Design the sequence.
């Protein structure tokens, strides 16, 4: 039972973190119709910025705030310099262009920070375990991630559902041409949205940094999951991204923790230890395939509202 | 007519010169990982190999040495391509390097087929020591199961009664944890294999380990994953409650990132920087002077690989076309190793000692200290499966 509660929290934490990445991705994909493979690079930059700024200021919180601001600026600069050339083009051009950006950022990071990677320590005031329920200890830092990401999700909900910018974002996701035709400064809107997506990716990166190490290419593995979430949730839908991210987070964690045992009972321990890791990492993709069969547009298609 | 005479004369002269003079240089291919997160390991190996060449005056048996470094990108198929390129177009005399078991296992065949000598500097794929052993394959490291066996024996002696195992789901991970299980006498409460190399968050596995309440956890995560594992182990509050044992997951490259998370963790290796023999003192001292960091065990094994090749080339006086003689010279291992005495078993893997190390903090620096000799003169356990006797 203790284990189950703990794994639920792990799944929740992983899912919420994925949501931060997927939110930016789904906005850019839905509104600008742009496939941005370089989203993972912004995640990586957030982590590197946080490592550097934390070392400068001596405070994790200050470092994090500066890192988010820096990733926001980098995101907006990337939009103005590179992404604008890609709007309205074929998706293959997007993939080629943004893949080039991945290589560019990887090399840039290598030049600035060196190939060895950085480490960022968990702030000392979060480096302990908290008893959430009697007998259930959970790392305070992971708990903090859950709290921060929930706050960001609430902020995004208010931003998208209750503000004028949010209205434009929703309108843009449903029908881009019409929004432009109505005289909205679509260029500025695009830059802002891309910057927002970058900042969210940066936040995800910097919060992961103390758990993982800060290293070149750290965004690439997790980006695939973010794309899966975007597709499951429905392209352009923040709500869809939220639900899908939680689904993926839970299924991945639960699959890893209970699937091997389940399979072990069925197949015997030797076969299970070989097959289980492969099968449990396939679970998410099976989920994606199943959802796409039932709802080809994803769970919450943005255009249909 | 004149040119024809000259050409004939030249041909006669060429035929008359001894074979040794035809060999103008020694060509060595070195395959390792020079890109991505594991590049730090590859660079450390290259630095050590270069340092060894410097110590030999950049000559082997009087011949100049040319080393061609190739990046395997941590992918077996890339490593195989690069190896084939070294064999077919560069026509190297020796191939060395290899961090990863799956890479070397994908790559060894073209080397052996071309009757070229392979000197593995790290990867411990057991099949290359056993059923797929070859007169052309040598190793200056170990097989994946040897160090874990040493750790298991140590834990048996300490009376650790139960353990939980966590490792990556690829050749070396299986062989490593398998080796541990073969020697451990206590109870294995559970074992988890994680997706390699993409899975970096071990929260689910750590929660399971915690729930199983073992007396100790044994894990194997080389490179950057080792940093992540140790950090997460400490964050989960397990560091204070369950002692951690490992192999190959803590080295001088990862320790600066692991810091406090690694203090107290025990592992087993055939070499550490604190050995006091003359060769090692010189190696560690010059390495620090030249590259500004402490060498890792990857570096030490690469240094030995270069020295081994050097000794063999000198042993045959540069006549590398006599393969049988080169093999004999390699088998002699007539060089000064950083681990003291060095000798090969019948399957061309070292017969060597294993030592237990513990991470300690000295002032602001973190280092691995030898705390015990785990096993002395251990022959490679796969020699009996090898057809060479």
Sequence:
């Amino acid at each position: 039972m203790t284990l189950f509660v703990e794994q639920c929290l792990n799944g929740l934490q992983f899912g919420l973190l994925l949501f931060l990445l997927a939110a930016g991705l789904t906005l850019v994909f839905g509104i600008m119709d742009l496939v941005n493979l370089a989203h993972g690079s912004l995640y990586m930059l957030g982590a590197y910025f946080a490592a550097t700024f934390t070392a400068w200021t001596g405070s994790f919180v200050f470092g994090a705030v500066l890192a988010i601001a820096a990733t926001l600026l980098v995101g907006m600069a990337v939009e103005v310099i590179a992404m604008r050339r890609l709007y309205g083009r074929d998706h293959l051009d997007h993939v080629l262009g943004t893949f080039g950006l991945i290589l560019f950022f990887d090399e840039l990071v290598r030049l600035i920070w060196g190939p060895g990677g950085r480490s960022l320590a968990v702030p000392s005031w979060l480096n302990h375990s908290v008893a959430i329920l009697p007998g259930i200890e959970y790392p305070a830092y992971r708990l903090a991630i859950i709290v921060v990401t929930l706050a960001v999700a609430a902020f995004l909900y208010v931003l998208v559902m209750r503000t004028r910018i949010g209205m434009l974002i929703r309108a843009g996701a449903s029908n881009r041409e019409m929004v432009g035709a109505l005289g909205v400064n679509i260029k500025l809107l695009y830059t802002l949205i891309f910057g927002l997506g970058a900042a969210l990716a940066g936040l995800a990166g910097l919060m992961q940094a103390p758990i993982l190490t800060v290293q070149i290419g750290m965004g690439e593995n997790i980006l695939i999951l973010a794309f899966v979430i975007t597709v499951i949730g429905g392209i352009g839908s923040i709500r869809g991204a939220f639900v899908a991210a939680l689904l993926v987070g839970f299924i991945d964690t639960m699959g890893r923790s209970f699937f091997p045992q389940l399979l072990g009972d069925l197949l015997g321990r030797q076969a299970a230890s070989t097959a289980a890791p492969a099968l449990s990492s396939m679970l998410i993709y099976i989920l994606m395939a199943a959802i796409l069969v039932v709802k080809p547009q994803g769970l919450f298609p943005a255009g249909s509202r | 007519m004149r040119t024809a005479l000259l050409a004939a004369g030249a041909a006669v002269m060429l035929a008359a010169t001894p074979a040794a003079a035809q060999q103008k240089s020694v060509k060595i291919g070195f395959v390792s990982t020079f890109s991505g997160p594991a590049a730090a390991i590859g660079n450390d190996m290259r630095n050590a190999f270069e340092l060894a060449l410097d110590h030999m005056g950049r000559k082997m048996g009087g011949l100049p040495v040319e080393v061609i470094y190739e990046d395997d990108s941590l992918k077996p198929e890339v490593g195989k391509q690069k190896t084939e390129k070294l064999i077919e177009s560069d026509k190297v005399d020796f191939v060395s390097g290899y961090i990863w078991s799956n890479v070397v296992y994908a790559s060894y065949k073209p080397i052996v087929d071309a009757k070229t000598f392979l000197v593995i500097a790290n990867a411990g794929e057991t099949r290359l020591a056993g059923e797929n052993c070859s007169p052309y394959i040598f190793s200056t490291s170990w097989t994946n199961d040897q160090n874990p066996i040493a750790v298991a024996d140590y834990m048996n002696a300490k009376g650790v009664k139960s353990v939980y195992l966590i490792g990556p789901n690829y050749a070396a991970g299986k062989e490593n944890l398998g080796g541990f299980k073969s020697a451990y006498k206590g109870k294995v409460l559970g074992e988890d294999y994680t997706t390699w190399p993409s899975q970096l968050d071990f929260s689910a596995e750590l929660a399971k380990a915690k729930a199983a309440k073992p007396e100790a956890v044994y894990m194997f995560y080389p490179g950057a994953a080792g940093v992540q594992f140790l950090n997460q182990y400490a964050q989960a509050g397990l560091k204070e409650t369950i002692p951690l044992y490992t192999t190959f997951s803590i080295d001088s490259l990862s320790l600066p990132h692991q810091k406090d998370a690694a203090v107290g963790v025990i592992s087993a290796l055939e070499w550490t920087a604190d050995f006091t023999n003359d060769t090692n003192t010189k190696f560690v001292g010059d390495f620090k002077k030249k590259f500004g960091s402490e060498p890792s065990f990857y570096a030490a094994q690469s240094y030995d690989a270069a020295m081994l090749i050097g000794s063999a080339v000198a042993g045959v006086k540069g006549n590398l076309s006599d393969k049988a003689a080169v093999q004999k010279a390699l088998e002699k291992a007539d060089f000064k190793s950083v681990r003291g005495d060095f000798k090969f078993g019948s399957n061309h893997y070292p017969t060597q000692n294993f030592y237990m190390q513990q991470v300690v903090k000295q002032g602001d620096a973190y280092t691995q200290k030898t705390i015990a000799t785990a096993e002395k003169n251990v022959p490679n356990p796969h020699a009996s499966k090898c057809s060479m006797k």
